[in-house]
UniProtKB/TrEMBL annotation, chains A, B:
Pathway: Carbohydrate degradation; glycolysis; D-glyceraldehyde 3-phosphate and glycerone phosphate from D-glucose: step 3/4
Localization in the cell: Cytoplasm
Organism annotation: Pseudorhodoferax soli
Gene: pfp
Protein name: Pyrophosphate--fructose 6-phosphate 1-phosphotransferase
Record-listed substrate binding positions: T136, I137, D138, M180, G181, R182, E237, Y295, L296, Q297, R298
Length: 405, 405
């Protein structure tokens, strides 16, 4: 039997642990006798059609382990979505390179790409195992308890809001932090992990799972300011009104779209600025500050969940094992076991492809502007070990002077 | 001799290590026999005039050590600047509480407050030691080699750009990160520490020490994109044109000012968005993303330089010792010694107060859009131990197929 050449690539927005999955595939491949060349395509499917490949089989384990702990797709990424002509070009290269297994690490758009390639292989009778390996900071893959990339991004968001809340407690006013996640609020919701005491922020959390009403938002901010003298708010970039229109569209800006039809919400501070201006104008508050957490959420060096690292490595290894067991198509899922462990079944691509999981109602408070304790029970074990604990200086006030003269 | 009551407060924008200095004062005070009550004023001078004090003498060492590693002013902060009436109200409380030593932890605005209080004490013959303890992420205090708070913020900026550069390398396009610092470019310049290889970003660095010319900026971005297929840019929030007008003012927005006359530049993503729009419109590039690093730079939990922590503690301890030695007015400075150490002379308040240090010409590249190796020699020892090293996947491309079909 000829050895099987394999091809691995990365698609969509990178994460802090996406290279763990890449290295998981490559090192696991070395444990199987039937594997020949291990190719990496640069910039996802774009690198396949361009025959722009690197030889991962020749990389030292030392280099790979260093790459594994480096954020952002080491092979490069793309948001290209193959159509029929694109698919034909992919198969030209797969044939020429005698590829028998294709691994694509990405989110729901990338899993749709795997589905398209897998169906094309079947249609033309080309023998190809197509395995999707999950990653997304949005945590929005169907069929998964959670998704590699999310725990590290969630840890970043929690630490960002923990610090922003302390900063706001020192100088007061209103602080708005805008968090990534166009349809799913999981990452925004992770801001809740910043809280240690009842008066800690974020005091309000707005998720894309609930329609955003500007009047109610202003009333809720005002109520918190009246109660605490300050307010910290976590807002998803994907908030929209009851008609599904993005709040950002209220700016009247033409919103750019990518090849998958997704509106560009990230890479601009416009939503935070819009909300701050509303608060200043309508509530008459002066110190109102907005941050957009931006690309740091998925790429910041030095903020990673060790749980996430382990699981991201495991889904890469499992993908390779499933391919060697003769599975021809599927997506590796992450399901939680009792305790802190996880298991990784192979689920149908159709379960994941181009579908979006959003937060369960049980995770969202009745108010619509907070999470539930059940969500924190879900989230906290994912954030990993070694989180820095903060401490407020909670001391009694010195008694007033007898005669304040 | 009656014991001396002391008062400590924090002013201006918080940092990751400002509480180290607070705890340095409080714990050092416990080593001196002549000290009575140790008061903390909440929210800086505002807390003094309101007689809003806490008893730091009653805080346990365990609590204080936890507070020391927590970012953002634990006592609360303010940007109030005392005028004559405000000063009179301060002295009412100082007299009533029999305060003999006043410690104020802050930047150049706060040191000006210390100068005003100190001169008022002399004018009215009130015996008061007034010691300014330095902190600022901007690193803009005269008479100092560097300032507590800067190394940790610089580490955050370096790690943010290291990750953003990897993300940009994966998906290409142009990335602009806007960094705090209204007049001094030190923090923006710290982005240069993200680089490991010649083609790593940030590829361009724009500092407030040089006039910003939009045409030159666009040409420089275009040149990098032509060379590398991508470009990462670090921009100071304080960039201004040759007439000194903030580039942000080109938006035509009314810019808010604080009590010290400073224009509000932070807490908005407007500058990044403005620059991104220019690049899209004028260079015809599609994937252009802007982040504004915002308050995370000074408050993010879990990103701190251990060098910074040690020095921030030391300036608090030294301030207390100077006061006990009978020094009545001054600012504790940080000067570098051979090796990695520092020493902390007491310098005149007038050296620091309301003055702004900017980057030496020797730290800025002749191009005006980068730093020099001398700046990196200055910066790198401050960033502390335990920085995460990243690794790009640098592998040779697989040779093209003999017949490409």
């Amino acid at each position: 039997m000829n050895p099987i050449n394999i091809l691995v690539a990365q698609g969509g927005g990178p994460t802090a642990v996406i290279n763990q999955s890449l290295v998981g595939v490559v090192l696991e491949a070395r444990r199987h006798a039937g594997i020949g060349a291990v190719y990496g395509a640069r910039h996802g499917v774009k690198g396949i059609v361009r025959d722009d490949l690197v030889d991962l089989g020749g990389a030292s384990a030392e280099l790979l382990e260093q790459v594994a702990t480096t954020p952002a797709a080491a092979l490069g990424s793309t948001r290209d979505k193959p159509d029929a002509a694109y698919c034909a070009a992919i198969f030209d290269v797969l044939r020429a390179r005698a590829i028998g297994q294709f691994f694509y690490i990405g989110g729901n758009d990338s899993s749709d790409t795997v589905r398209i390639v897998s169906e094309a292989a079947q249609a033309q009778g080309y023998p190809l195992s197509c395995i999707h390996i999950p990653k997304t900071i949005d945590n929005d893959l169907m069929g998964n308890d959670h998704t590699p990339g999310y725990p590290s991004a969630a840890r970043f968001v929690a630490q960002a809001f923990a610090g922003a809340d302390l900063d706001n407690a020192a100088l007061h006013g209103v602080y708005i932090g805008v968090v990534m996640g166009r349809h799913a609020g999981f990452l925004t919701a992770a801001a809740a992990a910043a809280r240690q005491h009842p008066d800690d922020g974020p005091h309000l959390i707005y998720l894309p799972e609930r329609a955003f009403d500007t009047e109610r938002f202003l009333a809720e901010v005002q109520a918190v300011v009246q109660r605490l003298g300050r307010c910290v708010v976590a807002v998803s970039e994907g908030i929209h009104d009851a008609d599904g229109q993005p709040i950002l569209a209220q700016l009247g800006k033409a919103l750019a779209r990518d090849a998958h039809g997704n509106v560009q919400l990230s890479g601009t501070g416009a939503l935070a600025d819009l909300l701050c201006e509303q608060i200043k104008a309508r509530l008459g508050l002066s110190r109102v500050r907005g941050d957009t957490l931006g690309y740091l959420q998925r790429s910041f060096v030095g903020c990673v969940s060790d749980v996430d690292q382990r699981e991201a490595r495991a889904v890469g290894e499992q993908a390779m094992r499933y391919a060697m067991q003769g599975h021809v198509a599927g997506s590796v899922a992450v399901l939680r076991t009792e305790g802190l462990g996880a298991h990784y079944p192979l689920i149908p691509l159709a379960t994941v492809a181009a579908r979006t999981r959003t937060m369960d109602d049980a995770f969202i408070a009745a108010s619509g502007s907070d999470v539930t304790p059940a969500f924190l029970d879900y989230l906290l074990p994912l954030l990993g070990s070694g989180r820095v604990q903060t401490q407020r200086l909670r001391l009694p006030a010195v008694a007033p002077r007898a005669s304040a003269g």
